[in-house]
Amino acid sequence: MTAPLPLVFDAPRRGMPPRHLADLDADGRRAAMVELGLPKFRADQIARQYYGRLQADPAAMTDLPAAVRDTIAGALFPPLLTPVRHIACDSGETRKTLWRAGDGTLLESVLMRYPDRATLCISSQAGCGMACPFCATGQGGLNRNLSTAEIVDQVRAAAADLRDGAVPGGAGRLSNIVFMGMGEPLANYKRVVNAVRRIVSPAPDGLGISQRNVVVSTVGLAPAIRKLADEGLSVTLAVSLHTPDDELRDTLVPVNNRWPVAEVLDAARYYADKTGRRISVEYALIRDINDHPWRAEMLGAKLHKALGSRVHVNVIPLNPTPGSKWDASPKPVEREFVRRVEAQGVPCTVRDTRGQEIAAACGQLAAEG
Ligand code: SAH
């Protein structure tokens, strides 16, 4: 018996995929029709199939003549993402999907069903270059950016599976999207913003998911936060702060050396001012590292000063990565932390951690294959 080849041999080419329909905006779609010698009205017809009917296989777009299906299959629907496997837990209510891109790159998304909503956690990059020491993805470094279509198609595929009843719990509707999978969304800025537009625009331009149900989570790339504030979008911004002091944050979120806490909070205030949206602050609580009562107080005070009532803290109990010496805080310490943040006038809740036994919990997406 021969050993399986290491994945790296599986993936000789690691570039962006060829152009896909979901990379294009409405003008781009029409220009593509002209290029292909097709009438412009086909552009919206095809887009309605993809975004409205969630159909990604031109062969099944039966309202198109067969010749058109062949033409667009070659020109606008390159192989994008193939599911390698689905793994479920939490009685089927959490499902992680490992995807293989056209060039062999691996990435993951996680679908979480709740009584009142279905949330998909998507990846914006394969790997991540931010090197946060407590995050599994951060340990492997950045493989490559995902294209707009590779980001959008994670959403389309999950929406189709939910609609078709292909996920335990019966047929449903995808309602929420969080950019909390692999990667730093604002380090892949243009493609992510384009993907957000496709996700929130109504058909035929997009999947029609409500902006208020989309969360873009960032380590705090301050200039990119300001730029995002000026895009005319109103998605929720989540800032992964993890500690209110620069000394510790320099080690927990290394990019803090470039944009320290005060600059991140300034940018967050600008985002709140421009969009009218409340900022969500992420705080992975790590035993004896960032869970001290004085840090809770400093966090609450700094956030209240910067953002007033336009901020909410999400405490995420640390999910230890394999081999990590760090652990989640004991529950009484967590409760005291929450109490002290709230005492400063800042709402604070503890996030439930789905998907732990399938390595689909926060920061566990490393796509080891
Ligand atoms: N790069 C983006 C998205 C990353 S994942 C960002 O940093 O915001 C989304 C959240 O999960 C981030 O707040 C991240 O810090 C957190 N996270 C990563 N690893 C974790 C772990 N092991 N335990 C708990 N939360 C973790």
Overall shape? globular
Helical fraction: 25-40%
Assigned CATH architecture of the largest domain: Alpha-Beta Barrel
Spatial order of strands in the largest sheet: 1-2-3-4-7-8-9-10-11-12
Q: Spell the H/E element sequence.
A: HHHHEEEEEHEHEHEHEHHEHEHE
- What integer is the average pLDDT? 93
Class derived from helix and strand content = alpha/beta
The number of distinct structural domains comes to 2
User: Hetero groups bound?
Assistant: S-adenosyl-L-homocysteine
User: Number of helical runs?
Assistant: 12
For the biggest sheet, the summary is:
10 strands, mixed
CATH topology group of the largest domain: TIM Barrel
Strand content: 15-25%
Rg over alpha carbons: 21 Å
CATH superfamily of the largest domain: Aldolase class I
Report how far the terminal alpha carbons are from each other: 20 Å
Runs in which pLDDT lies below 50 for 5 or more consecutive residues are 1-13
CATH class category of the largest domain = Alpha Beta
Strand tally:
12
Enzyme class: transferase
Active site: 108 (proton acceptor), 362 (s-methylcysteine intermediate)
Binding site for S-adenosyl-L-methionine: 183-184, 217, 240-242, 319
Binding site for [4Fe-4S] cluster: 128, 132, 135
